[in-house]
Each structure stands twice: as structure tokens, then as C-alpha cells.
Amino acid sequence: MKQSLQLRLRQQLTMTPQLQQAIRLLQLPTLELRMEIQQALESNLMLELAEEPDTSFDEAELLESPSEREHEIERETNGAGQDAEQDNEGTTQNEQSSDELPLDTNWEDGYDGVTIYSDPGHTEEWDPFANQSEDGQSLQDYLAWQAQLNRLSPRELTIAEAIIDAIRDDGYLGCSLAEIHTALPEQWSVCEQEIEAVLIQIQHFDPVGVAARDPRESLLVQLDQLDPDTPWLEPARQLIDQHLGLVAKRQFAQLKRRLHLDEQALQQTLALVQTLDPHPGLRISSERPEYIIPDVFVRKENGHWRVEVNPDAYPCLRVNNQYAGLVRRGDNSRDNSVMRQHLQEARWLIKSLHSRNETLLKVAQCIVERQRDFLEHGEEAMKPLVLREVAEAISMHESTVSRITSQKYLRAPSGTYEFKHFFSSHVQTVDGGECSATAIRARIRRLIAAEEASRPLSDSQLAEQLQADGINVARRTVAKYRESMSIASSTERRRFA
User: Fold this and answer.
1) If 102 and its partner were Cys, which of 84, 355, 377, 422 is the partner (CB 3.0–4.6 Å)?
2) pLDDT digits over 217-248, tens only?
């Protein structure tokens, strides 16, 4: 086998640390991005919050080579200049070593350092989760607090604590009284009658009907709290106590016969029952609310839709000029190397944030342009749209569009929508056009809202009406869309036979 040397040229994409950081920041939602920026502020001594944004920011200056700006500043100030080497950062595939960067000049001389679309109002005490409330009170804590206020004896209070610990999040008792009895001290010789008595007291705590063993018991306790003179109270109590299964099956004809009520009286009775809460415990939740911060604002001005990135999405960042001025070229000391590395990372982060906002704005503008009818006329005017179409329109890869639209939100006059809401599959129309799945769901919702309560439309009837409007959709597709909107079937929607 003969050995030989060969020279080959090939192109290869290198995932530099800067490119990896840009991709990671691209897919972060706003709250996680705030946390990422806060961690960078705490770990990087070169970064600081800017009190006021630089209104003279120019995108061309961001992409301009720092060396060119250094020479310009030195000529203006008549200072002694040094030839700076060109810094090819940004989204290029190859990067220079950090030791070759011209770091012995002021940061503002080489770069504006302020991210655009940033909020100038944050201070150094900025907290990324300051607008989030503390953890709410749990149902068990709320009931225990009420038990303390009811002046129970130590024996009854211990029984109440055992019962409260057995209550599920939906408000129902998660175990039997016998199991609660085994959790109590044996030397007390507590009988189930005592547990039952304490249980009845807890069931009248707020929310009323909590600690019930089934929906029937919970609803009856809630009825007992109503004024005895409440209309249709007795028929409602009889319906819940004896015929609750018939209500679930929508067998209204049998209900009228067994309760000896006409249709109007049964309607009034069911209306009273519907005012009760079958899951009283869900009104008390300990889950922390999740707030949505829009990434993009969309408003109509002079007949045109204007798109802008939310200025309050995250704080305004810049490089600390005092620390940046301490970095010197040619100094290989440990402290200087650390400052040089921090400065490089700060520049990367600021440029990555700028690139993220630019991509976000391009995608949002493309979506608004394609879905202009939706913004003006509602969901029935939604057009079919896929990621590939947006990627081709803005000359980016489809994976980039997928990352920037994940967990990002757009605030329009009609509401706040996730970017993914504007993307949907399509169905062929009779005339050869396309109709988006979102528009079909909106039409199904409108047809169901306008149907007669006693004669609800079946999935087949809905499909026929859609076909009459020129939309070719099968009954199974209608059923799938209806179920995705949590709309019951025609049998369950029927109020009276």
C-alpha cells in the first residue's frame, strides 16, 4: 500500500461558542431570558445596566469593525492611536482568538454597547421575577386556619387536622373515615361518630362542600347553605339526592316524570343546581400564576399595521467602560486575562441579544403581513401558514423560525397570541383554494353557538354546513376539531328532549 499526501479544500460549519449562545438565546422565552441576563450581570464584571438607552444607536455601527471606529475616534481626539486588528465576530463561522482583540481602548469607542428595544427604566436592583406573586395559600393551610378560629377542643382539632390532611386538591376526601381513624392516637379511643361530627363541621368551612366523599354529598351541603325560601330548592335537593346520574346522562324526559315537573320547572331546577360548585377545592390553589410578557406589540396606525419589539421585555445592557479601560493588550497576567475574557463574553451577549431581536422582529412582521385579515376580521379569516413559508420569506432556516416562535407571544388589539397560533394546516376548498384549520374551528364554534338547544347539530350536520360554505371536510375531521375545543357532542349538548 503506497502512502501519499493530498491537499483538500472543504467548507465546514463550526459551532463556535458565540453561535451556540446565539442559538440558545434565540429559543428562550422572555422570563427565562430575563433570568439568563440576571445571571450574566452577576457573573460578568464587564456588564452593567444602562439607565438610559443610547438614542444614537445605529445598526451599521453594530456590525462595523471595532478597529475602524477606534481609528476614527483617535483621529477626532488627536490621541495616540494603535493599529487595532479587525474583530470578525457576529454570526461568522470562524472567530479570532480573544488575545487578538483591540481591548486597550474604551468600549464606547469601539461599540455602542446598548441593546436596542430595551427598557431604560430598570435599576441595579432589577429582579426578573419581581412581578410574580408569592406562592398562594394551599387548601389545607386555609382549612387549618379556619379550624383554629372555630374554637375546637384539642381532641377535635387533632381529628380535624387528620381529616384536612386527607383532602385532595379538588376538595374531596381522599380516604375513608376508617383510614383516618387509624391515623389518630389509639389511647384516645376515638370512634367514627366523633370523626363524622368533625367532618360535618369542616364541610361547612369555606369553600362550602369541601371534604365531601362524593359530588352528591358536596352539592347537598352547598344546598343546605342556601336560604330556605330559595325557589326550586326542594326539587333541586331531590334531584341531587336521588337522580344525579340522570342529569349526567342528559335523560331529561325521565327527570320530568320522576320529579313530576314540567319542562319549565325542570329548567329552573337545573339552573339552581348549575350555580353549585362540583369541585369546591379548586377555588383555593397554591400554584404560582404564570404571567405572559408579550415579546412583540402590533398596532394599527394610519391604516397600516406596525410591529415593534416590547421595550420592557428585558433590561438595557452595556459594557462598563471603567473596567473595560483597565484591559491592556500584551498583558498576559491572570487578572488581565480574566477581564479580557469577561469583555469578550459581554460583547458576545450584547450582539446575540441584538440578533435575537432582529430575528424576532422579522418573523413577527412576516406573520402580521400574512395574517392581516385575521387581525382585522377575526379567526374565521385566518389563512393557512407553515414555518417553511416564513423561513423562505425572511431568508432564514426553518429551524431558526421554529426556535424564535416557540413560547413567544404577540400582543394585538384583539388579544395576546402565541406565535404558534398563527401557524396551522389547511383544508382544500371547493374552488381549489385553502382554508386554515383555525378558521374551520372558528366556524364550527359559531355554528354550535347558534344552534337550537333542543336540537343541537351533529358532526355530520356540521360537516354538511361547512361543505355548503365551500369547505371540504369530513365528519371525523369535524369531530376532531370539536373535541380539540372541548365542545361536547350533540347528545351531551342537548338540554331537553
Assistant:
1) 84
2) 999 999 999 998 999 999 999 999 999 888 88
Torsion angle, alpha carbons of 373, 378, 379, 384, to 10: 0
The model carries a pTM of 0.64
CA 337 vs. chain centroid, Å, equals: 41
Which CATH superfamily hosts domain 426-493? Homeodomain-like (1.10.10.60)
Q: Of the candidates 111, 98, 97, 16, which has an alpha carbon nearest to the alpha carbon of residue 67?
A: 111
- Cβ atoms of residues 142 and 285 within 8 Å: no
Sequence-distant (6+) residues with CB within 8 A of 57 are 112, 114, 116
Strands laid side by side in the 296-301 sheet: 304-309, 296-301, 409-412, 415-418
Measured distance CA(291)–CA(130) in Å, rounded: 11
- pLDDT per residue over 347-380, tens digit each? 999 999 999 999 999 999 999 999 999 999 999 8
Q: How far apart are the first and last CA of the chain?
A: 91
Q: CA of 454: how far to CAs of 174, 244, 446, in Å?
A: 38, 20, 17
Do residues 120 and 314 touch, judged by C-beta distance below 8 A? no
Structural domain spans, the chain: 19-75+101-124+322-349, 139-283, 426-493
